[in-house]
Design a protein that fits this description.
The protein is α/β, with parallel strands linked by helices. The protein contains six helices and eleven strands. The protein has a six-stranded mixed beta sheet with strand order 2-3-1-4-11-5, sandwiched between helices. A five-stranded mixed beta sheet has the order 8-7-9-6-10. Bound molecules: phosphoribosyl ATP (PRT) and zinc ion. Its cofactor is Mg(2+).
Length: about 210
């Protein structure tokens, strides 16, 4: 039996469950349960917070998982990635108040930037030779400039409407993300075999969608 960790409830949940179902894997889904077993494939599904998924897979509590690349890279777990899944696409972007002048990344030199992704942001700033003060906050990042907490933000953007409604303007795209399948590096032969079967089905689903 292979253990798959997916997000319990959030932006990844629905498409993760949909992918498993499209692979012909049946299970009874209940939002109240923490885990469920497939009725026709050797798979058990664990429902977790997305941030916990890379750690559980690295520790072997789950064998495989589905998570956003933004979370995976921020947690320094890129080595677990097996395959991009093509959904939950978004980007991590820098944004400034729309009335602020901005011409290039060097305008952020010495400024303060609020984000929930300090590592990805720091890497990007270092690559661009910019030193800034990073304020790590766990949520409501987009209100940081208007309350005087930071000059700029670095946050997940999808349609861009959250930025607009908070009077912000996207100025740099820092990181592109989508959902990825991740796996523990030390699966035994039996589990690896099940994963190969699952991947075979995922590829068939992806081909059918093209
Ligand atoms: O509770 P749990 O910890 O499991 O979930 P979470 O609240 O941490 O994550 P969740 O469900 O919000 O997002 C899960 C993953 O979905 C993220 O890690 C991304 O990989 C991906 N994703 C895709 C997004 C978005 N699109 C997205 N739009 N994650 C967040 N957003 C937020 C963003 O933070 C901002 O507040 O949506 C807002 C921007 O959206 P637009 O459309 O207005 O630009
Ligand atoms: Zn989360």
């Amino acid at each position: 039996m292979l253990r798959l960790a997916i997000q319990k409830s959030g932006r990844l949940s629905e498409d993760s469950l949909k992918l498993i179902r499209e692979c012909g894997i049946s299970f009874i889904n209940s939002s109240l349960k923490l885990k469920t077993e497939s009725t026709n494939f050797p798979l058990e599904i664990l429902y977790l917070r997305d941030d916990d998924i890379p750690g559980y897979v690295a520790d072997g509590v789950a064998d495989i998982g589905i998570v956003g690349e933004n979370v995976l890279v921020e947690e320094g777990m890129q080595h677990l990635a097996v395959e991009q899944l093509g959904f939950s696409k978004c980007r991590l972007s820098l944004a400034v108040p729309k009335s602020d002048s901005y011409s290039s990344i060097s305008d952020l030199q010495g400024k303060s930037i609020a984000t929930s992704y300090p590592k990805i942001l720091q890497t990007y700033l270092t690559e661009n030779g910019v030193q800034a003060n990073i304020h790590t906050i766990s949520g409501s990042v987009e209100i940081a400039p208007s309350i005087g907490l930071a000059d700029a933000i670095c946050d997940i953007v999808s349609s861009g409407s959250t930025l607009i409604s908070n009077g912000l303007r996207e100025v740099e795209r820092v990181f592109k993300s989508q959902a990825v399948l991740i796996a523990n590096g030390g699966l035994d032969a039996e589990k690896q075999e099940i994963l190969n079967k699952l991947l075979f089905r995922i590829h068939a689903v992806q081909r059918a969608q093209k």
